[in-house]
Amino acid sequence: MNKFKTYYKNAKDELFKVIFPIKEQIRSAYLSVFIVVTVITLFLALIDTVMSLSLSSVIN
């Protein structure tokens, strides 16, 4: 039982050390992720289009 109390106390102490992000940090991170995902999506779409056109020209 003593181990459980020690574990619970340590877990509670660690939770008090957690720093939650503020709204500006969340917004900034969201915007960064959105921009990176959009750029990667456009890049992959461009590569897919180029490969599709080149393959269709080889087949025809």
UniProtKB/TrEMBL annotation:
Subunit structure: Component of the Sec protein translocase complex. Heterotrimer consisting of SecY, SecE and SecG subunits. The heterotrimers can form oligomers, although 1 heterotrimer is thought to be able to translocate proteins. Interacts with the ribosome. Interacts with SecDF, and other proteins may be involved. Interacts with SecA.
Protein name: Protein translocase subunit SecE
Keyword Cell membrane: yes
Family annotation (InterPro entries): SecE_bac, SecE_sf, Translocase_SecE/Sec61-g
One GO molecular-function entry: protein transmembrane transporter activity
A Gene Ontology cellular-component term: plasma membrane
Keywords: Cell membrane, Membrane, Protein transport, Translocation, Transmembrane, Transmembrane helix, Transport
Primary subcellular site in the record, as a coarse category: membrane
Secretion signal, residue range per the UniProt entry: none
Subcellular location(s) per record: Cell membrane; Membrane
TM stretches of this protein: 29-47
Lineage: Bacteria, Pseudomonadati, Campylobacterota, Epsilonproteobacteria, Campylobacterales
Entries under HAMAP family matching the protein: SecE
UniProt family annotation: Belongs to the SecE/SEC61-gamma family.
Annotated function: Essential subunit of the Sec protein translocation channel SecYEG. Clamps together the 2 halves of SecY. May contact the channel plug during translocation.
One of the GO BP terms on file: protein targeting
Membrane topology designation: Single-pass membrane protein
